[in-house]
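QA checklist item 7 of 12: single-chain prediction sanity check.
[x] sequence parsed
[x] length recorded as 342
[x] structure emitted
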Amino acid sequence: MTEKKGRASISYGEPPRIIGAASIVGSKEGDGPLGHLFDVIEPDPKFGKNTWEEAESELQLLTARKAMEKAGMNEEQIRYLFAGDLLAQGIATSYGIMELQIPLFGLYGACSTCGESLSLASMAVNAGYAECAMALTSSHFASAEKEFRFPLEYAGQRPLSTTWTVTGSGAFVLAAAGSSYAEGASVCITGITTGKVVDYGVKDSMHMGAAMAPAAADTIYRHLMDFGREAEEYDRIITGDLGSIGQTILKDLLRERAIELDGIHEDCGMLIYDADTQDTHAGGSGCGCAAAVLAAYILPKLMRKEWKRVLLVPTGALLSKVSFNEGKSIPGIAHGVVFECV
């Protein structure tokens, strides 16, 4: 029986199954520690297109098609698509998946969009509104730099606190537990915790880990309280893209609430790049960061039963060009999704 837990969480009685997942990344991500795990590593940063925005749209379309291929499905069998990206008005998504002609819920949660899309897709499937649904997100280093910072030609210097926007996309096909599509699927989403906007007054757009860590701490704490669990009941609690500095802040904030993450916490932004050999400074970020790592690294470990229960908490910094230029602070948000092997 599906239950509401506390103010922010849902526990699924018949958990939706993950029946297909795909990841496509750029060459820098392919050179990282997880390079051998991604479905496709694309050497052309423009994906054969003329602009960075078109490149990200193509990246998202290719990843959606790859996920459907791995699930043995086509677009006619997907009832709803929950998707988003970092660009203004979500143009990477709307232009990218237009030809699929799947009913779309366009989303924006910044780098937390993977958690938001999976949460909403699982809710739709669990409630019976869709037998199958897809969650899809993407980011591209060049399109994000152009949108939020400076054109690449500017060659601005990046402080050590910055994270590197991942060129990557992750797509996930979910099916209802009792559906014929779900037969043989070994990983399910057993619960979600929806985050709230948390603002600690950080104004440095080159220090995203500090802006997002308080939201991640709030969601993890709320999740554990809502479900009545201890952190040790998870094989891993994995944040989206706090990076190395944000990880330290997160642990300190949770330690103040008597929650210890040492030994069970990982961060997708720290996993996707090699801190010693790649010039990414604090780590990776972007909508595609958590999504690609989930598809390539986390779900396979659950399928092999190396892990039994994982809490994934993608994190997002809710700034825009307008808010930053007006001197506003950078609020954060984080959404929790629980994955378990059947």
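[x] summary fact logged: The CA atoms of residues 159 and 318 lie 20 Å apart.
[ ] second reviewer sign-off
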